[in-house]
Write a structure and sequence with these properties.
It contains three helices and no strands. The protein is mainly α. α2 packs antiparallel against α3.
Length: about 90
Amino acid sequence: MGSTTMYAAIHLFSIFLELVICVVALRMVFVRKRYYALGLAVTFGIYVFYDLSKQYAWGVSAGFLNWAFFIATVSALLTVLWLNKKAG
């Protein structure tokens, strides 16, 4: 396996793991009523969209992707701040 092929496979596997995190976080929200996990679901859902749109050249504008990434980052920040507050 060439290094380019290996890196592409690793990247696709990373995207798959992001999707798994998103699905688990959504389950935490809707089944276990752990509403803080919504921030994780938003963050990783955006990461999946961002990575797939770059990987497969979906033609999404750079401006939109930059805003999406910013929203994902803010979502993650708010989630960790909420968790920190709940922890005491």
